Amino acid sequence: MDPRSRNGIVGMFLAAAATVATLLLELPLVVPILLFLGGCLLGVYVVRQSLRRR
Q1: What are the residue ranges spanned by the domains of the chain?
Q2: Which end of the chain is more exposed for a tag (fewer CB within 10 A), N or C?
Q3: pLDDT digits (tens, 9 = 90+) for 1-54
């Protein structure tokens, strides 16, 4: 996959996750949302590292 298109997909996913987190900040679910976003960022990092090794 082209690096620019992959970065665009990752950027769109992060923007959508940030939008969902912003909408849900009013609720008492802040900690699970932050853990979810942290897991997403960690997953993106692991995927990028594994693609970089190939």
Answers
A1: 3-53
A2: C
A3: 677 777 778 888 888 888 777 777 766 666 777 788 889 888 888 888 888 876
* pLDDT reported for residue 51: 83
Rounded alpha-carbon distances, angstroms, from residue 25 to 28, 34, 46: 7, 10, 27
Cα of 42 vs its chain's centroid, Å: 8
How far is Cα 46 from Cα 41, in angstroms, rounded to an integer?
9
Taking every pair of Cα atoms in the chain, the longest distance, rounded to a whole number of angstroms, is 42
Q: What is the 3-state secondary structure (H, E, C) of 28-41?
A: CCHHHHHHHHHHHH
- In sign, the C-alpha dihedral spanning 14, 17, 19, 21 is negative
